[in-house]
Structures are given as C-alpha cells and as structure tokens.
Design brief:
The complex is a heterodimer of chains A (296) and B (285).
Chain A lengths: L2 H41 L4 H6 L3 E2 L6 E2 L2 H32 L2 H16 L2 H20 L7 H26 L2 H9 L4 H12 L1 H17 L2 H6 L17 H8 L8 H36 L1
Antiparallel strand pairs in A: 1-2
Chain B lengths: L1 H39 L4 H5 L2 E2 L4 E2 L2 H32 L4 H13 L4 H15 L6 H25 L3 H9 L4 H30 L27 H10 L4 H37 L1
Helix pairs in contact in B: 1-10, 3-6, 3-8, 3-9, 5-6, 6-8, 7-8, 8-10, 9-10
The chains are: A mainly alpha (296), B mainly alpha (285).
Chain lengths: 296, 285
C-alpha cells in the first residue's frame, strides 16, 4: 500500500477513535440534560417547594399531588434496610475469604459470589413474589409479604457481591507487616482482624458499602416486584412501599407524553440520578484514598 | 471457666465469619434450588421451541427467546465497535489532560447510573426524538448505551496488559500507529476484550428496566427480523407472567420455566467468559 494512503488511513482512524471518546462525554451530558430539560418543564407547572415537601404522591387524582417525600422515604427504608443486612454479612464474608479461607476454598467461594452477581434482577424479584413474600406473610400473619422487608432482603442479596468483592480486595491489600506486628504484641487472630486489619481497610470497606448502596438505590425490577407499590406514606418495614425507581417503571408506561405527570417522572428521576451519583462519588473518593494510602 | 472460654473464643469468633459466608452461599443455593427444581418440571424441547398459545397459559417461550437473541445482537452491534474504539482512544492516543480525565470520570459515573434512567433516556432519544418508535431497535440501542461503560472499562484493562515494547517494535519496523494497533495490539488483547464483551452482554440480556418503555411487548405474534417492531424478551416475559398476567397462579409453572431458561442463558455466557479467561491465562504462562 502506498505511503500516503497509509498515513491518511492512520489520520482518519485517529479522528474516529477520538470522536468516540467525545461521544461518551456527550452521552453523560445528554442523559443529564434530558433529565434537566424535562424536570424544568415540570417545575414550570408545579412549584419546587410543593414537590420537595409534599407528603403525597398521587398524580392521577382529581387534584394531582406531586410530593416526592413518600417516594424518597420508601427508597431510603428499602435501601438502608438492605445495607443493615448486607454490611455485616458482606464484611464478614470478605474477612473470612481474605483471612481464614485456604486457597482451595477461595477458588470455590469466589465463583460463587460471581454467580450471585450474575443472576438477573428480575429473577430475584420473582423469588421475592413466590418464595420470600409468602414466607414473610406466614411468619408475621400478614395478608401478603410484599413489603419493605421483602425488598430490603432481596436488595441485600443483590448488593452483597459488590460489597464482598471490594471489601475483600481492601482487606487483602492491608500489608502483612501490620498483622505480624499485632501478633508480635500477643494479639489473637480475631483481635488483629477487629483492631488492626479492618480499621486499616476501612476506606475500602466504606467504598464497598457506598457502591453497594448506589446499586440498591438504583435497582428497579426487584423492588418493583417485591415491595407491593402502595401509594401510602410508609411507616415501617412491614408496610408496602413504592420507591422512586418503581414509580417511574409503573407510571411511565401509562402516562401520555408531555403532560405534567410525564414531566414529574423526569423530575423524580433527576432526584434518583443525584442520589446514586452522590453514593458513587463518595465510594470513588474512598477508593482513591485507599489506593493512595497503600501505594505510599 | 475462664480458661475454658479462652479456648472456646477463637472457635466462636471463627464461626461468626463462617456463618456469614455460609449464609451468602445459602442464598445462592436457595435461589438456584427453587428455580431449578420447579423450572425443570416444565422444561422440555417443546417449551423452548413452541410459540406461546392460549393467552400464554400454554405453549412455549420461543418468541421471547428469539426476541432476547435479536435484542442482544443489536446491543452487541452497537456497543462493541463503539466501546472498543473509545477504549483504544483512551489507552493509545489520549494524553493525561483534563479532558481525558473528564471522559474517564464520566465513564465511571455512567456505570453507576440506574438502568431505569437509561430507559428514560432511550425513550426520550430513540423512541421520541429520533422517531424509532417503541421497537427492538430502540431497546437494543438503549441496552447498548447501558453496556458501553462496561465494554470500555474491560477493553481498556485488556489493552493495558499489552507491553509497551510490542507497540514500539511494530512502530520500529515502519507500521503507522493505526497499523500497530490493528495488527499487533488488538490481536494480542483479543481474549481479554472477548471476556469483557461476553460478560457485558450476559448482563444486558438479563436487564428489564431499560426495555420497559422502549419496545418490550406483553404479547406479540410471530414477527421476527423486523427491527421496527415491538418484541418479547425473556426477562420482560418473566416480569409480566409473575405480576401482570390475568391468571397469575395458572402461568406460574411457565414463569418458573422462563426464569430457569434465563438463568441458564446468563450462566452459560458467564462460563464462556471464564473459559476464555482461563485459556488465555494458561497460554500466557
């Protein structure tokens, strides 16, 4: 091939590669502006104050109410409940894999965690309906088990792989000398784990929890199927809840384009976007801190 | 007493960790056991090769199976070239400027954006602005966008493993930069890239939220191969059968069968990815 032609191809290729890089930037910008544009259209019709402080979400009533509070409380109950279950289990499992399991057991446990991560969320939600829901109903004498507790348990299962994998990396990355110094002072294995290894790995573990939380907040199908979706202000774990994600999933399919209700769903989506963004940014901050700390 | 407790303490402590690990494994076992035992009863060749009939209370799941295959193909066609090109740019061309760092930060943030928001974006961009309508094309492109950050990240990791000396050797014998990438870097990193692609597509195949309003349909008759039409997909089918069908109890066995097929498809894709990774590592040694 001629030299000139090869150079031209080289130049064109560079332009193509470069433009894809910029397109990715445009994608995030596009998502953000799409949400913002439609949310602004909503706030032109409904005052932001009513939106933030309203305690009722009922867009289809004769006098529509667009209060996001019950949705935020629902999302918080379910995802914080999930964290209550997933943090001790996840950190415990990570500590076990990193500190106690022998190499043979590790080669079994790691694929197990990856398998758990690979199960589609709709399958987990399905099990919430057919397995966990009836179980919760029987144990607590409820008419049905589709409530916040059900969603929290399922979301915990979905957040566990994230929490375990990142925590395990963090615990594993703690220098061996720390542990040896602790043993040298006469500390037991357990004391070393609790007082030395886990505190040293804390930034990594916090990152793991935040990324797991981000995943739980943004999860749609599981909560949509397992939490009952009643439009009430939730008071506890045995109440049915309707999260932000579930509200979008249910109502976007039924609402006519470019009505107030349509724009309202984008307004709650932008709130969801920022909730997950904050969780992920905090997670990323701690991951970087952990890397810096242990690279030095 | 004191002495006895001291002897017992490590065992108790060790068991709490073992218990949490056991519980995590128990979750997976329960999930798999329930789906496999109950799904197995309806699973047969007829189940995957017959169309749904009688308001989906009878027959098989051929339409959603084919829908998922086509959907994943569209996702792949869109996201693989796009993702690989972007990863090449970031790893081979880009210098460490604020712009590059912004692109990297946006990729990380994109992978944290909830899938339902991708669904909204697909609805606003593909269905409405570009006027593709609710179709398998819109849904596939939406899933493609969702897959992009994962493909970029895994491809970049694969490219990073290729030693600098290989690129320099290619340049030294007169190859242009593009030729060194095309003929040396890409072939060498292919197994790593493939692993990432298969894992990402397995995730995309199981996604439901992004296709809710971009084209998935409750029930359609046979209309394969038309990208402008709505479609049935396995995860959406499972969602519909377990929550929206008028006789939920009656279709429960079919729902279990659908869940089983979906899990098997996803696990097979994961196994393929692990196999590629395993073989690649052995070759490297």
């Amino acid at each position: 091939m001629q030299y000139k032609k090869r150079i031209t191809i080289d130049k064109i290729a560079k332009i193509i590669f470069k433009s894809t890089g910029y397109l990715v930037l445009a994608l995030l910008g596009g998502i953000f502006f799409m949400l913002l544009y439609n949310a602004i259209a909503f706030f032109l019709q409904v005052s932001p104050l009513d939106f933030i402080t309203g305690s009722q979400w009922n867009p289809t009533a004769a006098e529509p109410a667009y209060g996001i509070l019950p949705l935020i409380v629902s999302t918080s109950i379910v995802s914080l409940g999930a964290m209550l279950i997933a943090i001790p289990l996840g950190v415990g499992t990570a500590a076990f894999i990193s500190e106690y399991a022998n190499p043979k057991l590790k080669t079994v446990l790691k694929p197990t965690i990856e398998m758990l991560a690979a199960i589609p969320s709709v399958v987990i939600g399905f099990l919430g309906i057919v397995l966990l829901g009836p179980g919760i109903a029987d144990l607590n004498n409820l008419p049905n088990g589709l409530n916040a507790l059900n969603g929290a348990i399922l979301l915990a299962i979905m957040a566990l792989p994230t929490i375990i994998t990142i925590s395990e990396d963090a615990i594993h990355a703690v220098p061996q000398t720390y542990r040896e110094a602790s043993y040298g002072l006469g500390a037991s294995r357990w004391q070393t784990l609790r007082k030395i290894t886990i505190p040293a790995a804390a930034p990594g573990i916090i990152a793991a929890v935040m990324l797991g939380l981000g995943r739980a907040i943004g999860e749609t199908m599981t909560v949509l199927m397992a939490t009952g979706n009643a439009a009430i202000f939730p008071k506890g774990f045995f109440d049915s809840v309707k999260t932000i994600t579930a509200t979008i999933a249910i109502e976007m399919g039924e609402v006519p384009y470019q009505t107030t209700h349509y724009y309202a769903l984008f307004a709650i989506a932008i709130v969801l976007f920022f909730m997950t963004l904050v969780a992920n940014l905090i997670g990323e901050y701690f991951i970087n801190r952990f890397r810096k700390y242990h690279a030095a | 007493m004191q002495h006895k407790f001291k002897k017992l303490a490590p065992i108790v402590e060790w068991s709490t960790l073992l218990l949490s690990t056991g519980l995590v494994c128990f979750f997976l076992c329960v999930i798999l056991y329930d789906i496999f035992t109950k799904g197995y009863q309806v699973l047969s060749w007829e189940f995957v090769s017959k169309l749904p009939t009688n308001g989906m209370t009878q027959g098989g799941i051929l339409t959603p199976v084919i829908g998922t295959v086509f959907l994943t193909l569209i996702t792949a066609i869109f996201s693989i070239p796009f993702g690989i090109c972007c990863a090449i740019y970031l790893n081979e061309y880009a210098e460490n400027t604020w712009l590059t760092r912004t692109i990297r930060a946006s990729i990380r943030n994109l992978s944290g954006v909830p899938s339902i928001i991708y669904g909204l974006f697909g609805l606003a961009l593909f269905v409405q602005a570009l006027n593709f309508g609710t179709s398998i094309l819109s849904a596939g492109l939406t899933l493609g966008l969702l897959s992009l950050p994962y493909i970029i990240t895994t491809t970049e990791e694969a490219l990073l493993r290729i030693p600098r000396s290989m690129r320099e050797a290619a340049l030294a014998v007169g190859a242009t930069k593009f030729e060194s990438i095309k003929d040396v870097v890409l072939p060498a990193s292919l197994p790593g890239i493939l692993t990432g692609i298969v894992l990402t597509l397995s995730r995309a195949a199981g996604e439901t939220a992004p296709i809710l309003f971009t084209g998935a349909a409750f029930y359609i008759t046979n209309s394969f191969g038309n990208i402008n039409q709505e479609f049935m997909a396995l995860p959406y089918h499972l969602y519909m059968l377990s929550t929206q069908h008028q006789s939920i109890e009656e279709v429960r066995p079919i729902a279990y069968g659908t869940a089983l097929v979906l899990i098997v498809v996803v696990f097979l894709m994961n196994l393929t990815a692990f196999y590629i990774r395993y073989k690649f590592r052995n070759n490297e040694k």
